[in-house]
Amino acid sequence: MRALAAASGLAAAALLAAGCGTGGISKGKADTAHGKQLFQERCGSCHTLADAGTQGKIGPNLDDAFSGPRREGFKESTIRNVVHGQVKYAIENPAGFVKGPNGGDLPAPGMPRDLVTGDDAQDVAAYVASVAGVSAAGGATTTTATTNPAPAPTPPTTTQTETASTTTSGGGSDLVAQGKDVFAKSGCASCHTLNDAGATGTVGPNLDETTPSKDLVVERVTNGKPPMPSFKGQLTGEEIQAVAEYVSTVAGK
């Protein structure tokens, strides 16, 4: 079980090792489809989760974190409680250091509080518990009776027609529309405030107040600046140009 704690990178690993959850605070029906949407919007920029298609590198890889517990027979309800506890009692300023992109030590990144609350937090916890580590554990699941999947909601950003009409080489409104889509899908709203995107994150700068130039956005998205990670390996050069065009165009408007 010591290996499990090291692999997960989560303070809650001790709860799994003890075979318990977090006092039964997460239970009952939940909307896992809604949880998946919220995870992609607010958690994906920091966490890798195969089912959600996210590849964040700041926080633990959730498939790696929970594949071991699944193989060892931990119940889905236990994993759900652990995830809910990590969301509800997020550690914003953990101790220790991590290796930065240049090999130097950087302060260990924290997890923002109140990314999701109430029923939204229940939905995210139930979703993560239903999919995290399933493939790595050989497809094994325990109980899913606590979840109540609903039809996938309509994406909150651009419509299919708008997405189809965007280009990666053009400029103007098409590039701005593409950039808005990238901003939403990459989880930028979980850290930044930007009125046009309906984003109210408080971890990073308020973009409406700082109104960054396109060049600055390109630099920050490409190379990062703690606590912001580099998105060089997650976004293409065209996507970085698009989100920079979008932010620099709408910030402060």
Structure description:
This protein has 11 helices and 6 strands. It has helices spanning 2-8, 13-17, 32-42, 62-71, 76-88, 118-131, 160-165, 172-185, 207-210, 214-223, 237-250, and strands at 48-49, 54-55, 97-99, 105-107, 193-194, 199-200. The strands form 3 sheets. Strands 1-2 form a two-stranded antiparallel ribbon. A two-stranded antiparallel sheet has the order 3-4. Strands 5-6 form a two-stranded antiparallel ribbon. Helix 1 (2-8) packs antiparallel against helix 4 (62-71), helix 5 (76-88) crosses helix 6 (118-131) and helix 8 packs across helix 11 (237-250). It is globular.
List the helices and strands and how they pair.
Blueprint: H1 2-8, H2 13-17, H3 32-42, E1 48-49, E2 54-55, H4 62-71, H5 76-88, E3 97-99, E4 105-107, H6 118-131, H7 160-165, H8 172-185, E5 193-194, E6 199-200, H9 207-210, H10 214-223, H11 237-250
Helix pairs in contact: 1-4, 3-6, 5-6, 8-11, 10-11
Shape descriptor reads: globular
The averaged pLDDT comes out at 76
* Helix content bin: 40-55%
Tally of DSSP helical segments? 11
Oligomer: single chain
Secondary-structure element string: HHHEEHHEEHHHEEHHH
- How much of the polypeptide forms β-strand, as a percent range? 5-15%
**Distance from first to last alpha carbon:** 52 Å
Q: Indicate the structural class.
A: mainly alpha
Low-confidence stretches: 1-24, 140-170
Question: How many beta strands in the DSSP annotation?
Answer: 6
What gyration radius follows from the Cα positions, in whole Å? 19 Å
Strand order across the largest sheet: 1-2
Largest sheet: 2 strands, antiparallel
